[in-house]
Design goal:
- By secondary structure, this protein is mainly α.
- The chain is 78% helix and 0% strand.
- Helix 1 packs antiparallel against helix 2 (26-35) and helix 1 (2-23) crosses helix 3.
- The radius of gyration is 13 Å and the shape is globular.
């Protein structure tokens, strides 16, 4: 289960970085990811192709609400 927790933490960090990119700018968000030791490509892919990311995520990981 430790891997699942790490993935959840990475997801929350990436979502916050996306928020920072929208509010403070991309450079600030990338610096934040560097400080958290999260790969930059997570944010860069989300910004470049948001519709593709969302569509494939829905198919791969169904929600458990």
């Amino acid at each position: 289960m430790p891997q699942r927790r790490r993935d959840d933490e990475t997801a929350v960090t990436a979502e916050y970085a996306f928020f920072l990119a929208e509010t403070r700018g991309l450079r600030f968000a990338l610096d934040y990811l560097d400080n958290c030791h999260i790969p930059r490509d997570i944010l860069l892919r989300a910004i470049e192709q948001p519709e593709r990311r969302r569509r494939s995520e829905r198919r791969r990981y169904p929600r458990n609400d």
